Amino acid sequence: MRGQRGVSSVVATVLLIAVVLVVAVAAANFALSFADSTQEPAPQVHASMDPIEAGDGYLNITKNGGDELRMSELEIQIRNASGGGTVRLVDLPASGPLQPSNFEGDAGMVDNGSGVIVNSPANVEWTAGDEIGVQLPNAKSGDRIVVRIIHPETDSIVWEDTVTVS
After folding, report:
1. In angstroms, rounded to a whole number, what is the distance separating the alpha carbons of residues 126 and 109?
2. Which of 19, 63, 79, 98 has CB atoms 3.0–4.6 Å from 112's, for a disulfide?
3. pLDDT for the residue numbered 109
4. Strand partners, 145
């Protein structure tokens, strides 16, 4: 019996060290998992949108500054917040008409013959002064149109604005 008393404090110390090590390894693993999940920051875009007239429904976005982006790196989401649906324009060409493969959602919101327009057809970068335009043939006076430019690579909305059709 005499030799048994000292063993319990040794066992308790070993168990305490083991528990501390397990907690430390778990905390380190949790902390390091955040380092692996970091991604590139979203690009910065400064743009403006012209008012939309109900007669022509032309949506025009002019880039005023920010990072240069390739048109193929962007998606444009157009939502009629007045209950008219949502369309997402994907795999954007630098110029020319949109194809059926460029639409996700309510494709009838956008006239696919209007195309995405960048000032220079040879310019695949969306730079300051360049315009993106599409026609919304069903836009009615009073409709609230929400436009988002999305950078799928970073899963970020890089620009958003709302306009009321006049």
Report:
1. 23
2. 98
3. 87
4. 80, 163
Amino acid at 62: T
- Describe the strand order of the beta sheet including 45-49 as a list of residue ranges: 45-49, 58-66, 131-135
How far apart (Å, rounded) are the C-alpha atoms in residues 143 and 158? Answer: 23
Strands 69-70 vs 156-164: parallel, antiparallel or unpaired: unpaired
Q: Is-above-0.85 flag for pTM?
A: no
- Lowest-pLDDT range of 86-90, 93-97, 123-127: 93-97
Q: Which long-range contacts (CB under 8 A, 24 or more apart) does 41-47 make?
A: 41/154, 42/151, 42/154, 42/156, 42/158, 43/67, 43/69, 43/151, 43/154, 43/156, 43/158, 44/158, 45/69, 45/149, 45/158, 45/159, 46/159, 47/149, 47/159, 47/161
Three-state SS at 163: strand
